[in-house]
Amino acid sequence: xxxxxxxxxxxxxxxxxxxxxxxxxxxxxxxxxxxxxxxxxxxxxxxxxxxxxxxxxxxxxxxxxxxxxxxxxxxxxxxxxxxxxxxxxxxxxxxxxxxxxxxxxxxxxxxxxxxxxxxxxxxxxxxxxxxxxxxxxxxxxxxxxxxxxxxxxxxxxxxxxxxxxxxxxxxxxxxxxxxxxxxxxxxxxxxxxxxxxxxxxxxxxxxxxxxxxxxxxxxxxxxxxxxxxxxxxxxxxxxxxxxxxxxxxxxxxxxxxxxxxxxxxxxxxxxxxxxxxxxxxxxxxxxxxxxxxxxxxxxxxxxxxxxxxxxxxxxxxxxxxxxxxxxxxxxxxxx
Length: 335
What we know:
alpha/beta; Alpha-Beta Plaits; GMP Synthetase, Chain A, domain 3; Rossmann fold; 3 domains; seven-stranded mixed sheet; elongated; MeTrfase_TRM5/TYW2; transferase; TRM5-TYW2-like_MTfase; S-adenosyl-L-methionine; cytoplasm
C-alpha cells in the first residue's frame, strides 16, 4: 500500500517517530519500513509534510505493509460478551444466549484461553462453590491463575475464586505493615493471604477456611509461591479463632452475604487497634449503615468500640446491589 512517508537515518528514527506521534501525523495502520541505512515512517494521508521542518529527513513515498490486527470479539460477534478469565479458563456469565458461538470467539481471540465454561449457579452452599457447564476447548475446571506476581492453583468446581477482586486484594496489601498479624477468616485458595505473606515476609498470616478442598489448594499454593509465613487451617472460623485470641492487627472478612454471622468471632482475634476489613452485599439505598450497625453491635458485645475508617463500593453485584467493603478500627479495652 503506497503511503507518503518520512525517510530518515536509522539513528534518528525513534526521535522522528515520537515527534510524528505527538503531532498526530503517524499512520499506525501500516508497518514502519527500513533498509540498510534508513527508516521510512508512514504519514497519515492528510499530513502536510512541508510544515514538519525535520533536519536530515526527506519526504517521499513508498509501499508499506498493513498491520495484521487480531480479530476482536466485537468484530466476530457484533458485541462483547460478559466473561472473566481465570488462568487459562474463560467463564461466560449467565444470560449469554449463544454460548458455543461466544466460546469459539473467545478461543480465537485469546490464545491464552484453553477452556470456556459457563456458570450454572451462583456461589452456593457452606463451601462457597459454583456449578459450571463445559462449552469448548479443554474439558477441565482446574487452572493456575497469575496475579500480582503470585500463582494460584484452583479447581473452580471445588473452591471459589474470582479475579475481579485483584485490585481489592492489592489495596488491602498496601495497608499492611511488616511484622503485623493478619487473620484471613475465609481464605479460600489463598489470594489475600499469600499476596500479603509474599510481599510482607515478616508478617504472620493465619488463613482459615471450612472447605477442605479449598484448604488443599491453599496449602499447595503456599508451596507454589514459596511463602513460609502462612498458617493454613481447615475448620469453622467461629471455632478456630479461639486459638488466636487477641493477636490480629488485621482481620479480613471476605464472605459477602453471611460475614455478619462471624462478627463475634472476629472480635475474639481483635484487640485495640485491629482493623476489620468487612465485606458485604448491600442494596443501593443502604450501602453501609446497616452493616456498620452490625459491626458496632458485635464490638460492644466484646467490650470494644469502633472507629469507622473507610467505606467503598468494590463492584456491582446485581441490579441495585453492590459488593462493599467497610473498614473499622477497634477501640477500647475489650474483655
